[in-house]
Amino acid sequence: MIALNGLEGVEKLGQQIDGVHQQTVKDELPTLGLNDLTPDQLGKLQSAVGSLDPNESLEDQGITLTWKTKPDVNAVGTSHGVAELTYTDNTGDTPQKRSTIIKIDVDVREDQTINRFVKKISDKPLTWSQANEEASNNNLNYDTSTFLDADGWTGSNLSWTLDRNKHYYDSKAIHLKQIKMQVVKDSNTAHQLFQQGNLDDA
What is the pLDDT of residues 50-87, one digit of tens each? Predict the structure, then answer.
């Protein structure tokens, strides 16, 4: 492995550096972004391109970061991926297109939420989509989206409740029965209600 000299305008194309260690769940390929660079590498990239705007996409800033070799996320464990960073180096008299290869280690773990749902549906090993399809085919009324349902919410009213979703697949894990929501327009009133113990959060 080498230092990120390329971001200082002296690296040859195709040389390799170590990126940030990533984590993901099984069957989910990590997305790539500037957070895959170490702070030192990020600083050198910023020096090379001139400036980085976190509110703009990489593509709009002339930067691309894509997988050349995707990590294997089909099995639990540590997998290795290779990404390519391309950018325009503006440090010299003439802007130069440069490329850096980044090795990214990825820790792949089981998604426990998916596991609990799949075990409710079948004893067979199923993917998330297969388990949902199996539940639908057998008319099993399971909801995998949210454990709370909004009751009485119209989009403009000032009070409503969040009730426990009785169809949530892991309903036994929900210990809340209800959350009462109230919009208090005046911040001083909200603070006073909180101080009096009439609000749990404000």
Answer: 888 777 888 888 899 999 999 999 888 899 999 999 99
pLDDT digits (tens, 9 = 90+) for 91-107: 888 999 998 888 888 88
CB 1 within 8 A of CB 16: yes
Please state, in angstroms and rounded to a whole number, the distance separating the CA atoms of residues 159 and 172: 27
What angle, rounded to 10 degrees, do the helices at 128-137 and 112-121 form?
Answer: 30
28 within 8 A of 73, measured Cβ to Cβ:
yes
- CA 103 – CA 70 distance, rounded (Å): 10
CA distances from 43 to 29, 40, 65, 99 (A): 26, 5, 16, 16
- Do residues 157 and 182 make contact, with C-beta atoms less than 8 angstroms apart? no
- Average pLDDT of the residues of the chain: 75
Lowest-confidence region among 9-13, 127-131, 137-141: 9-13
Residues 76, 108: contact at Cβ < 8 Å?
yes
pTM of the model: 0.48
Concatenating the DSSP letter of every residue in 126-193 gives: --HHHHHHHHHHTT---B-S-SEEEES--SS-SEEEEEE-TTBTTGGG----EEEEE----HHHHHHH
